[in-house]
Design brief:
- There is one protein chain.
- The protein is mainly alpha-helical.
- 71% of the residues lie in helices and 0% in strands.
- Helix 5 runs antiparallel to helix 6, helix 6 packs antiparallel against helix 20 (384-394) and helix 11 (200-223) packs antiparallel against helix 13.
Length: 487
């Protein structure tokens, strides 16, 4: 591994431990939190040889805590298990950050750009705060493993990707798509996207053919959504997480998102490079690895009862109808501004701009875009964050835009440093989840985000976009101004 990458990893490890000293542990379940407390019970039960019954959804995710089962079997207490997982999170995430830095260098990204990109990743809520504040969640394992997966992809370790297709199926729902797409679109430095070669008439025709019926179908499904469920979703007795006064704007936002997703998909479908990039052997072995795991999950667990996971489609509609672009606001606050720049880079490619973004990453962005556009529970799509960071790093953003992204990430993250006192007060006094005290935590958990935090997030997003557009425009004008002087 590159020496600079190793130093980046060590710096991330130190920063994670420093943040824990500030934020402490979640003041629920003796530091384990809600889901974490359930996982601890299951871990202790399994360490004693007793099976977990009636909860197939969480039983699958136990695969992210195998070391804790061993620690519990050796006599570790609940507090000890939390500390063991925290230290494992530090090791995994710092290694993941170092490998991501090395991945960027192998993608011919400048060292300065690679370093600032890893800094932007580190300054996100889900990377820097949650693993230290709420250690026992499979989210943190998924985040680190995706970084490792990307490193294996850029080094062409294909059998490692096939193994990840299997393991990710157990770790988090939908996460298997990342190694499967990476295996299907292996790293090929010589293949570049040529969206400019796509016939504009053909793309517009196909876009219309798909977008029109898709829009009608979405409107029909929205019409059947009970507004009472939208109001109740994530809200406590004296709190609000949605605004029906803006329901028409929310519907419009959903349609705009749909059109952008369809447009990106059409351009991927018509781009000849997409088809030339496919490795059918990679698709076969990756798909086979996933299918074997999926069959084992289906047959080894009793799915006839217990908690089988939330009704995904219903929740996506409730969350996206809550307020215009609320899911995107949630991702901005939890992932940081880099998610907006990564999506904008993929959309810019679809509009005909030549790009150095590897085809595999554009396909992954497209695969997760419907979930990102309509689901505000950011942590469920956490594996997208390292992908977004690489897309951001390899894209043609001005240096000042990158600095602005880092500065904005720090600003968005900063309120987390006061989470210990405010959330501790909220937990002990039994306040509403939409109270400003609880919002230091739940304000970053989209479905429970209060309308006040949504409005603050919307303002931050608009300011960030305005400044980023200005900086990009200034950089472009400077380039144009210097070209004649070189002749």
């Amino acid at each position: 591994m590159n020496r600079v990458s190793l130093l980046n990893g060590l710096a991330v490890a130190g920063l994670l431990l420093l943040v824990h000293l500030v934020v402490g542990f979640m003041p629920v379940g003796d530091g384990a939190g809600w889901d974490g407390g359930v996982y601890v019970q299951y871990i202790q039960s399994l360490s004693q040889g007793n099976p977990v019954l009636g909860d197939p959804y969480r039983s699958i995710r136990i695969s992210g805590f195998l070391p804790l089962i061993l620690a519990s079997a050796l006599g570790a207490s609940k507090a000890g298990l939390i500390w063991v997982q925290l230290l494992l999170n530090v090791v995994m995430l710092s290694v993941g950050a170092a490998l991501l830095h090395d991945t960027l260098l192998r993608l011919n990204v400048k060292k300065s750009v690679a370093t600032i990109s890893v800094a932007i990743l580190t300054c996100s809520w889900v990377f820097l705060c949650m693993p230290m504040f709420y250690p026992i969640l499979s989210d943190h394992v998924a985040l680190a493993m995706v970084c490792v997966c990307l490193w294996c992809w850029v080094r062409s370790y294909r059998w490692a990707l096939y193994a990840f297709c299997s393991y990710f199926t157990w770790l988090m729902p939908g996460l298997f798509l990342i190694p499967l797409i990476l295996a299907t679109f292996p790293h090929e430095p010589t293949l570049k996207s040529e969206s400019g070669l796509i016939s504009s008439k053909l793309s517009l025709w196909l876009f219309a053919v798909i977008a029109l019926p898709a829009s009608v179908a979405m409107l029909f499904m929205i019409y059947k959504v009970p507004l009472s469920e939208v109001v109740a979703h994530g809200a406590t007795v004296i709190g609000a997480t949605s605004s029906l006064d803006m329901i028409l704007l929310s519907v419009s936002a959903m349609l705009v998102s749909l059109l952008l997703i369809v447009w990106l998909g059409v351009n991927l479908l018509l781009d000849p490079v997409t088809w030339r990039s496919i490795s059918f052997s990679g698709l076969f072995w990756g798909g086979l690895s996933f299918i074997v795991s999926a069959v084992l999950i289906k047959t080894c667990f009793d799915w006839n009862g217990g908690f089988k996971g939330p009704p995904l489609l219903d929740f996506l509609f409730y969350q996206s109808l809550a307020a215009p672009f609320k899911p995107i606001i949630s991702h901005f606050i939890s992932f940081g501004p880099v998610i907006l720049l990564a999506i904008s880079a993929c959309l810019a490619w679809s509009l005909g701009r030549r790009s150095s973004i590897p085809k595999a990453l554009i396909v992954i962005c497209f695969a997760f875009l419907p979930l990102l556009a309509y689901g505000s529970e950011t942590r469920q799509w956490i594996g997208v964050l390292p992908i977004a960071v690489i897309i951001f790093a390899v894209s043609d953003f001005a240096w000042l835009t990158r600095v602005w992204c880092l500065a904005s990430s720090v600003v968005v993250f900063a309120p987390s440093l006061w989470i210990k006192g405010y959330v501790g007060m909220a937990a002990t006094t039994g306040l509403s989840f939409q109270s400003y005290q609880w919002q230091f935590y739940f304000g970053r958990q989209g479905p429970w985000m209060s309308m006040t935090v949504y409005q603050i997030g919307l303002i931050l997003v608009l300011v960030f976009i305005a400044v980023a557009v200005f900086l990009q425009k200034q950089a472009k004008e400077q380039v144009v101004a210097t070209v004649p002087s070189l002749n």
